[in-house]
Each structure stands twice: as structure tokens, then as C-alpha cells.
């Protein structure tokens, strides 16, 4: 079984998708093809500069469009996901889309599929997010495809909307009242997630397996917030909130204009530690030695006059 050369990457214009596409282009040496659909071509401007990337305007939630996108492809990587939304929105993205994708793959004769899920999935999951991710996995596992699942913890990197948001927040406030402060995470670098997905494509024995994508260390949410502020040069006092008050804060944040930082459903998700179970293989099984948060975070969160955070991130990703 040879490594797929013609790939469809759903969600390729997102945070993980951009890192993955850049990694796959470097890995291929300019051979092969990456087809990346997007609702708006402007969202994929950075990818347009990459050789072998075919940026296509398409709605991946449309059955006919999915069929056209799969034409000529050897494999599919599904990264499409949302962190905030209603129960119906989670269902549409995390369950209905995988069901459509599985049917389209079967019709097109495309057997190889990599799907990014999440740590914390399983029976009785406490949030709409985790329940929908659980059902999405089940849909794909029942489809009889050559499936590999990746379950990451929270993913960090120069363009993340996690540590960057907490760092930016601390530049504006004297203290950070924090819901879910004791929730536990095992953050993983976006470049390591990209490398693991690429490695899984090259390894036929990854078919039928589920991998936990985590970094080497576990942190509480409060510790992550403090580190983000410290590395950005404006660490503030973190004030853990009691559960009831924390839930009110999350509700208020979910209703505020602008980008949602936390919602009640996020708090429900955080009831399940986003850490490795130890019962499934990790990134090491795919030949990836995960980077420590402390070796990467200061590179893009810290102040660096004359160079953008993204420039530093790219330099670190390529190890110079």
C-alpha cells in the first residue's frame, strides 16, 4: 500500500489545517495534490501560495459538492469542527458531516480517511461538543472505511485562539476571574498534530487505530492562563470562580459580541480531563516526539520587536 498522493483536506483553511497543508507540501517535495475546499476563497489566501494546493470554492455540507471534491482523490483528512454552538450546530458539523462524508467516500470508492476528534469522547460525555464528537466517531467507524482517528487535547501554536486570547486579555485587565480553573489539559503543538497526521498517511498499520495527541505535560487551566500572561509580559492574578458563579460568567461570555472565549458547554466539556488515558497509543507511536509547551509558547507569545509572532513560529517549526 503506497502513501496517498492526492488528498482532500476538509477544514484545511483553519488553524490546524494551515499547519497540516504546509507540512504536507514540504513532505511531498512538490509532488501530489492537496484539494482544500472553502466557503470563501479569501479564507485560504495563505494556502494559495503553496505549490500543489488546489483551493476550491465549495460547501462541504452539500452531498453533490462532496462527491465532486472526492473525484480523483486517494484519501481524505477531516478537520472540520466547532468549539461553540447550539446542539443542532454541533450535530450538523460533528455528526451529519461525517455521515455525509462516509457516504460520499463509499460512493466514490475512496477508502482512506483520517478524522480529528477530541479527548474526552465516550459514552455519557457531559457536553454537546463531546457527545457530538462521540457520535461522529461512531458514524465513521460503522462505515467500513480505512479509518484512523486522532484525539487531541487543546492545540497550541502561533495562531491559536486559546493562549493568545488569554495573553491578550491580561494586557487589558488587572486580574482574571476564571471559570473552570482546575480543569486539566495536556496541550499539544499544532506542528506535532500536523506531523502525526502526515505520518499516519504513510503508515498502513495506523488503519483502524485511535491515537491520543498530547504534549508531555499536564496543566490546569489556571496554570495555562498564568503562563500565557507571563510569556506575553503581563501576568495577572488568576481568581478561580466557584462553579455557580463560573457558569454565570461562561453564559455571559457566550452571549457577548465578538469571539466567544468560553461557554457553559465548554465548562461541561472540561468536567472530563483533556489528558491521555494511557490506554491508547500516542504521538510517539507515529514517530512524533511531542514538543513541550514551555519550549514553544514563549517563542510566539513573547514580545519580539521587528518580527511577528508568526515569523518566529515558522522559524521554530523548521528548527531554523
How are the SSEs placed, and which strands pair?
Blueprint: E1 6-10, H1 15-28, E2 33-38, E3 53-57, H2 63-70, E4 75-78, H3 87-108, E5 112-116, H4 128-141, E6 146-152, E7 155-156, H5 163-170, E8 175-178, E9 184-185, E10 188-189, H6 190-202, E11 210-213, E12 219-220, H7 221-232, E13 237-240, H8 243-255, H9 264-269, H10 293-301, H11 309-317
Parallel strand pairs: 1-2, 1-4, 2-3, 4-5, 5-6, 6-11, 7-10, 8-13
Antiparallel strand pairs: 9-12
Descriptive notes:
The chain has 320 residues and is of the alpha/beta class. The chain contains 11 helices and 13 strands. The strands form 4 sheets. A 7-stranded parallel sheet has the order 3-2-1-4-5-6-11, with helices on both faces. Strands 7-10 form a two-stranded parallel sheet. Strands 8-13 form a two-stranded parallel sheet. α1 (15-28) crosses α6 and α5 crosses α7.
What general form does the structure show?
globular
Strand content: 15-25%
State the low-pLDDT regions, or none.
305-320
Order of helix and strand elements from N to C terminus: EHEEHEHEHEEHEEEHEEHEHHHH
DSSP helical segment count: 11
- Tell me about the largest β-sheet: 7 strands, parallel
What is the CA-atom radius of gyration, in angstroms? 19 Å
The total strand number stands at 13
How far from one another are the termini? Answer: 34 Å
Structural class by SSE content = alpha/beta
Average pLDDT for all residues: 92
Strands of the largest sheet, in order across it?
A: 3-2-1-4-5-6-11
The CATH class name of the domain at 6-153 and 189-214 and 275-290 reads: Alpha Beta
CATH topology of the domain at 6-153 and 189-214 and 275-290: Rossmann fold
- At the fourth CATH level, what is the homologous superfamily of the domain at 6-153 and 189-214 and 275-290? NAD(P)-binding Rossmann-like Domain
Amino acid at each position: 500500500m503506497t502513501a496517498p498522493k492526492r488528498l482532500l483536506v476538509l477544514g484545511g483553511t483553519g488553524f490546524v489545517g494551515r499547519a497540516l497543508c504546509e507540512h504536507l507540501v514540504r513532505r511531498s517535495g512538490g509532488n501530489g495534490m492537496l484539494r482544500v475546499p472553502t466557503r470563501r476563497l479569501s479564507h485560504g489566501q495563505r494556502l494559495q501560495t503553496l505549490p500543489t494546493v488546489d483551493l476550491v470554492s465549495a460547501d462541504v455540507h452539500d452531498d453533490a459538492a462532496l462527491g465532486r471534491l472526492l473525484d480523483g482523490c486517494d484519501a481524505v483528512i477531516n478537520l472540520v469542527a466547532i468549539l461553540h454552538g447550539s446542539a443542532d450546530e454541533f450535530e450538523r458539523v460533528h455528526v451529519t458531516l461525517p455521515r455525509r462524508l462516509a457516504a460520499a467516500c463509499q460512493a466514490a470508492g475512496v477508502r482512506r480517511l483520517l478524522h480529528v476528534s477530541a479527548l474526552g469522547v465516550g459514552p455519557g460525555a457531559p457536553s454537546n461538543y463531546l457527545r457530538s464528537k462521540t457520535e461522529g466517531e461512531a458514524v465513521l467507524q460503522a462505515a467500513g472505511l480505512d479509518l484512523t482517528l486522532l484525539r487531541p487535547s487543546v492545540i497550541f501554536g502561533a495562531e491559536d485562539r486559546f493562549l493568545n486570547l488569554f495573553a491578550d486579555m491580561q494586557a487589558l485587565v488587572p486580574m482574571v476571574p476564571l471559570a473552570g480553573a482546575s480543569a486539566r489539559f495536556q496541550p499539544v503543538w499544532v506542528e506535532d498534530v500536523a506531523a502525526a497526521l502526515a505520518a499516519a498517511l504513510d503508515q498502513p498499520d495506523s488503519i483502524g487505530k485511535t491515537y491520543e495527541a498530547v504534549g508531555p505535560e499536564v496543566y490546569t487551566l489556571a496554570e495555562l492562563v498564568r503562563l500565557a500572561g507571563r510569556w506575553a509580559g503581563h501576568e495577572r492574578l488568576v481568581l478561580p470562580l466557584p462553579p455557580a458563579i463560573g457558569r454565570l460568567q461562561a453564559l455571559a461570555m457566550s452571549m457577548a459580541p465578538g469571539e466567544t472565549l468560553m461557554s457553559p458547554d465548554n465548562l461541561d466539556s472540561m468536567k472530563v480531563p483533556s489528558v491521555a488515558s494511557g490506554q491508547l497509543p500516542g504521538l510517539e507511536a507515529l514517530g512524533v516526539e511531542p514538543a513541550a509547551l514551555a519550549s514553544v509558547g514563549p517563542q510566539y507569545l513573547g514580545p519580539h520587536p521587528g518580527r511577528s509572532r508568526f515569523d518566529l513560529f515558522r522559524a521554530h517549526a523548521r528548527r531554523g
